[in-house]
Design goal:
This protein is mostly helical. It has one domain (11-95). The chain is 71% helix and 9% strand. It has one helix spanning 28-95, and strands at residues 11-15, 18-21. A two-stranded antiparallel ribbon has the order 1-2. A hairpin with a 2-residue loop joins strand 1 and strand 2 (18-21). The longest helix has 68 residues, at 28-95.
Amino acid sequence: MVPTGLTGNTCRRSLRGARLCNAANLNTEQFQIARSYFKTRVDEGYAGMYAKMARDLTWYILGALALWFSLLLAWRIYLWVAAARSKLDEQSGTQE
C-alpha cells in the first residue's frame, strides 16, 4: 500500500515487499545510493538472522546427540552390571 501523495515516481522501487519511496526527492544517483545502502542493511539483517538460526539448530542437534549417547551409555552400563551380578550369583550358587 502506497501512502497518499507518494505515488508515481516517488515510490518507484520495491525490495523484499517494502516499497522504497523517494520522499526527499533525491536525484536518481542519490536514490540508487540510498537503495543500495538499504539493500545492504536488509541483506546483512537476513544473513545474521539465518546464521543465528543455523547456530541454534546446530546446538540443539548436538545437545540431542549428547543426550542420546549418554542414555545409550547408561543403558550399556546397566546391562554390564546386570550381567556381572548374574555371573556372581551363578558362581556363588555353585560354590555352596
